[in-house]
Amino acid sequence: MSTSRIAVSRASLETRSYFRERDSVIFSFLFPVIMLGIFAVVFGNEDVGETSGVPIDFAQYFLPGMVASGIMLVSFQTLAISLAIEREDGTLKRLRGTPMPPVSYFLGKVGMILVVGLSQIALLLAVAVLAFGVELPSEPSKWLTFAWCYVLGTAGGAILGIAYSSVPRSAKSASAVVVGPLLVLQFISGVFFVFADLPSWLQNVASVFPLKWLAQGMRSVFLPDRFETLEVSASWQHGPTALILSLWLVAGLVICVRTFRWQRRDDG
């Protein structure tokens, strides 16, 4: 079999395995949906942007951040934790000893993330529209922006998750080591709060990481054009968004090549 066919088969296997893991489905797949529901109910009577004369329902404003957060949860968090577990229980070591090309294994992981991510976003958008009356964009240009933001964000998150999986020293510590930093990034990257309302130094810190740019890209898709003026730079900054997400993707690939391990540290 060719490398690509093995990758497709591996992606199918990984996808089925993912949906059998209830913890992963709940915390990575359903978390954005649950958070959207909670925030929309709690702040349902509030509007965002009233002081600027461009008010919008809170659920509508909150949706792009949840889309971006969901992408990072499904890609970065899922792979960082699952690979740490597979390394601990010897799965990676056994796979390395098979004839399967390593690139097919990783492409299978990325393929699984792309499928799961699209499924999660479809569910999130359906809940937003049916339960909270959120209006989705109708312009093709906005969905084109969504496409490249999704591909760059998901691929970058997956590659960074693979790279970060070598950080936890054991499978037991993986959840804390992965979830903690990602949760902090969600708070400072415009996922749970209006990004422009954060202190400037926090904005500068968040701008180093991809989640801030992914959330901003998604806001340009799901928010009306008049909200562009409420961004810190008064612009959606599509160019810098694509550049920084691409740079993180390349950086993740370099780190993976240099640091990824197929076996535990104590295996030598």
UniProtKB/TrEMBL annotation:
Keywords: Antibiotic resistance, Cell membrane, Membrane, Transmembrane, Transmembrane helix, Transport. Coiled coil: none annotated. Residues 23-263 form the ABC transmembrane type-2 domain. The keyword Secreted does not apply. GO terms for biological process: response to antibiotic. It is a multi-pass membrane protein. PANTHER family: ABC-TYPE MULTIDRUG TRANSPORT SYSTEM, PERMEASE COMPONENT (PTHR43229:SF3), NODULATION PROTEIN J (PTHR43229). The chain crosses the membrane at residues 25-43, 63-85, 106-131, 143-164, 176-196, 242-260. It comes from Jiangella alba. One of its GO terms (molecular function) is ABC-type transporter activity. InterPro entries: ABC2_TM (IPR013525), ABC2_TM_bact-type (IPR047817), ABC_2_transport (IPR000412), Nod_factor_ABC_transporter (IPR051784). The lineage of its organism: Bacteria, Bacillati, Actinomycetota, Actinomycetes, Jiangellales. Pfam families: ABC2_membrane. GO terms for cellular component: ATP-binding cassette (ABC) transporter complex. The keyword Ion transport does not apply. Belongs to the ABC-2 integral membrane protein family. It is found in: Cell membrane; Membrane. This is Transport permease protein.
